[in-house]
Write a structure and sequence with these properties.
Distance between the termini: 58 Å
CATH architecture of the largest domain: 3-Layer(aba) Sandwich
Radius of gyration: 23 Å
Number of helices: 14
Strand content: 15-25%
Number of strands: 20
Bound molecules: NADP nicotinamide-adenine-dinucleotide phosphate
Amino acid sequence: MQTKNLIGGEWLEAGNGDRLEVRNPASDAVIASVPSVGAAETRKAIDAAWNARTAWAARTAADRGALIASLGRLMRRDSERLAKLMTLEQGKPLAEARGEVGYAASFLEWAAEEGKRLYGDIVPASAPDKRILVLRQPVGVTAIITPWNFPAAMITRKLGPALAAGCPVVIKPAEDTPLSAIAIGELACEAGIPAGVINILTGDAATISEVIFDDARVRKLSFTGSTGVGRLLMGKASKNLLRLSLELGGHAPFIVFDDADLDKAVPAAVACKFRNAGQTCICANRFYAQAGVHDEFVARFSKAIAELRVGDGSTEGVTVGPLINDEAVAKVEEHVENARSLGGRVPVGGRRARIDGLADRFYEPTLIEGMTPEMMICREETFGPVAPVAKFTDEAEAIEQANASEYGLAAYFFTRDASRLMRVSEALEYGIVGANDGGPSTAQAPFGGVKHSGFGREGGRYAMDEYTEVKYVSWQL
Ligand code: NAP
């Protein structure tokens, strides 16, 4: 297994030999180490991407697509190995890790085809001897910075369309989960993607990004992570007026109307909330149940939550793994205690789950009744396995509460009323709406947020816009 950095087609150590430890969050055991590179290596990676850009952009879309598709195929071939590696460094249950590898590959497969449809336009001119051509060209060297919660998919969701549009990339994965990124780099070499087109750096995020922001050859940053860091990077990106895609935090409402089909709403609520132990940007953060169905929804949701099995993600049958680090567990604890102190009742869970032989990183799947807007859990991302529920009376109140957030990534609601399906879909101020659907993510749909959840879209044809410039040629005959 490769653990070095990929720069200009070579696998390299940090110049000073520094390395960072990678730990298994479930046991806290050190599982590997990766280079801790700095400014010199970052400049080298940008040089490599810069030097690769003209030849990569000059290839046909079909040519690029064949290489991108080949990377997707290799990921599927090695799915089991990649999934085990992901569970080891990130903690999610193996079944979810397998799912993520397939999901990650699907972005490459989609982009490989979509690059062939990167059409321009011919626009009718206003003079008889003129023609107006609109070309779409690659934006250029692209920096990619990704979080730890989806160590493979957050990379390929950017990598696929960037490569398909003709952009070489410099990737900086999260410090907690560099191994999946490096494994993708290894497969990219096997797929035959030319040297310098994909570069992967591990090391101090601020040091690496300073070099990226200082170098005018980098033309685009695609970032997925917290709103706080996104805001910081947006300020720094102003220096060279970088094109930006910011996929930031979320605080998803999940509304259950009186006429909802609970046979569908309850399993969707469980999957949407507890996948990845609640460490998902689009996972439900706030549940709103209408008065007529509230008690039954809470009873059925509580029963399903109590059946979840907490443990090491690599153990068969485990459905909720560890949280990523000690701060994450402390934050969940703080949110639950704060809710309790403000009158919340906790019929299920509500404390750390101690498991013999494993690290103190597990939290019991939890339900809180009586959520109020003052609670931290109702405003801040908890990023843990906790489901707070509030009761509401009518549709207007539900929409008002759902929209009362600085975030605008994903929202969910369940109803059998066809008119309400359209009304509420339109009224929710979110980039993604799951209408009777708790799992909307898919490669062909535009994924992204509004408000403090950022801007830009990933997935489908919309993703190609993020990596292309529109050029207008005014042609005098
Ligand atoms: P984070 O702390 O913002 O980190 C994200 C990435 O930014 C990591 O690679 C991190 O590097 C890097 N970073 C941190 N400080 C930086 C700096 N000063 N300059 C340059 N890069 C810097 O977020 P996280 O804790 O990894 O991820 C969780 C967050 O991501 C949540 O808010 C979640 O909602 C959001 N998220 C959003 C989406 C979406 O599509 N909207 C998807 C997944 C996650 P290090 O790891 O090395 O510090």
